[in-house]
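Fold it.
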Amino acid sequence: LVIALAVLVVSTANWLVALLATATILGVMSTFFITFVASGWVLGMYECMFLQLTAGMAVDYTVHLAHAYNESAGATKEIKLREALTEMGVSVLSGAVSTLGASVCLFVCSFKVFYLYGSFIFFVILWAILWALLFFPAIMLTVGPAGEAGDIKIFRAIQTLLSGAAPAQVEPDSLEAVPDKPAAEVETKEGVLQS
């Protein structure tokens, strides 16, 4: 989880989004481990191998929603969350449904390793999608950042440089729209620009 938090901080350039996403991932893993114990599974060779995969599978849906929330241009938490769920919600849900369906097919296998693997995948994905679509949006609406809150300026500047996008250098008083002229003509202090 420490590595996941570090990667999220760097990739989102927002410590608050990273922290809330990591808390959600911790919830997914905790719920899965409770399911593991409640199911009566014991640690064997296969279970140890599959437990190593849980962290990687637990982060997927939450990270996609966190990234979409963070990249939204919305001014409020509500707008940012709506845009994140609109942009990524269907993809995240579709991915979970197809993975759950594939894991169900492994339940009928006669080899124990495939049955266990299917069970692990099913429960990790089930908890991951429930936490990502129920807990994460609720916590983002409650304490999530709006605007530039939580941004780490140096990481945001590096992201801008790496993306090749030039920062906006427009002065607000330098452009005035002229309502009587077509939208292609804009009047500046120096004269009329036509595009």
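The two ends are 51 Å apart (CA to CA).
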